[in-house]
Amino acid sequence: MTTPATLRGVPLTGLRLGAPLGSGSAGVAWAATTEGGDRVAVRVLPDATAPAHAARERRLDVLRSLHHPGLAAVRTMPGHVDDRLVVTDLVPGPTLATVRTGRMGLPAAEALTLAHGLASAIAELHRHGLVHGDVSPTNVVLAERDEEGLGHPVLVDLLADLAGEAGTTGFVAPEVRGGRAPGPAADVWALATMCVWATRVGDRDMVARALGGAASDDPQVRPSAAALAAHLADQATAPVQVPPPSVLAGAALREHAQRAPTVLRPTRRRRARHRRAAPVRSAVVAVLVTVVVGLSTWLLWPEGQGEQSAQGRSAVGPAPSMTEVVADLVVARDAALVAADAAALADVTVEGSPARADDLALLDSLEGIQLSGLHTAVGDTAVVEATDTAAQVQAVLTQGEHERTSAGATETVPAQEPRCVVLTLRLDGPQWAVERVSDCS
Asked: Can you give 61-123 as a three-state secondary structure string?
């Protein structure tokens, strides 16, 4: 009899677990594959008070009933599956933040098409009594629907924590900054502000005028999302063009370096549950240093894309010394994860860096899971750029077969496909350490 895989003690009935994808408002998301071969994202929701749990279940029930091309689908699982496990579709494609960086802004026609599609998706949420709460560039994925590089906007991270988060810096409505809970009007303000932000400089006034009062400081002046979608219907004339992988690679690197954090609501400080607990960045879709050392966030990496991205980057050539540095860091990281040693894991990363925060968050998510035989091989390595104290190194990493034991049951995790990542390294005292990790795509 085969024991099903588990995630934080929750059985993954009918699912094959992959690697972590990223952290969002509802915790760490992991890649998985269904028995039918669909690629999905899974999360184990944290414990909540009875009222908060009931509210969350009501939200999930509504989300599972929605079928809109602009919303990432939340799947309905069989009744015998643990209700703490949430399964959503993975949306392949770059975020709006990356596309905007790669293209230096969108022309007006594309920005208004973007606004129309997202207004329609947000209106669908509002019609069913839901508020997104964090409409922002990293929560919009431009799903590529054909081979012409056209992107269809899809809103992700629908499991909002409206009690704990107020949105992403720069896209938080004035009334929410003043202490009010996010409402439908706050989603409209964030949408309008984001679409103007995504527009190239010379076209921003045109887009702002087309959006009317949607970005007004007064919530009463703003149109509803449905009214805004209707108003923009005749102006949505040009689908968003997604840049090729070679452009997206560099854009993703620049965008992650500039990414704004999520605004947290003030709460009473909770006592740490155990010594491994550490501050966790709550930026939705933030890059998470995974067991494979790096994956993109809330996005599925298509087969073979890593190799294409590696060819598209402007690497200056092989660097044996940096190959050794990366290999040493990867070996140390694998050993720290197997030992569940937070101090050793922190030694691999720069103090106060996104990599350290995300790595410790990963260790926290592995509570109750014992890893054994974990080994990550370092393949082709090239320096993208370097100084005496900092470097960006592109490497192909392959996680080998290993075992995970939870609640006395052991499962074998098969070897993963090679992954292309870019590691931002910094000389931290006498040793090199990882400051940030991003996917080559």
From this structure: HHHHHCCCCCECCECCCCCCCCCCEEEEECCCCCEHHHHHHHHCCECHHHHHHHHHHHHHHHH
Dist. CA 373–CA 10, nearest whole Å: 22
Token couple for 384: 């993208």
Per-residue confidence (pLDDT) for residue 308, from 0 to 100? 28
Cα–Cα distance list, 411 to 11, 398, 404 (Å): 12, 19, 6
Backbone angles phi, psi at 4, to 5 degrees: -65, 150
Torsion of CA 161, 164, 166, 170, to 10 degrees: -100
Rounded Cα distance between 435 and 393, Å, is 12
CB atoms within 10 A of CB 414: 10
Share of the chain above pLDDT 90, in %: 25
Q: Quick one: pLDDT at residue 250?
A: 65
Going from N- to C-terminal start, the domains of the chain cover 1-89+288-441, 96-258
Q: Note the pLDDT of residue 225.
A: 97
* Other C-beta atoms lying within 10 Å of the C-beta of residue 375: 15
DSSP state, residue 139: G
Please name the CATH architecture into which domain 96-258 falls: Orthogonal Bundle (1.10)
Question: How far, CA to CA in Å, does 292 sit from each of 199, 365, 383, 426?
Answer: 35, 15, 19, 20
List, in sequence order, every residue forming a beta bridge with 264; answer none if it has no partner. 165
Are 384 and 348 in contact by the 8 Å Cβ rule? The answer is no
HEC per residue, 252-276: HHHHHHHCCCEEECCCCCCCCCCCC
Q: Which residue, among 319, 402, 396, has the nearest Cα to 5 in the 3D structure? A: 402
- Name the CATH architecture for the domain at 1-89+288-441: Roll (3.10)
135 CB neighbour count, 10 Å cutoff: 31
Distance of CA 228 to the CA centre of its chain: 27
Give the per-residue pLDDT at 163. Answer: 54
Distances (CA, A) of 117 to 41, 66, 321, 395: 23, 16, 48, 37
pLDDT digits (tens, 9 = 90+) for 303-337: 222 322 333 333 343 333 677 788 888 888 888 88
CA-to-CA separations, 371 to 36, 54, 178, 411, in angstroms, rounded: 27, 34, 45, 10
Residues of the chain with pLDDT under 50: 1, 267-320
Can you read off the two tokens belonging to residue 74?
């939340």
CA distance 274 to 366: 13
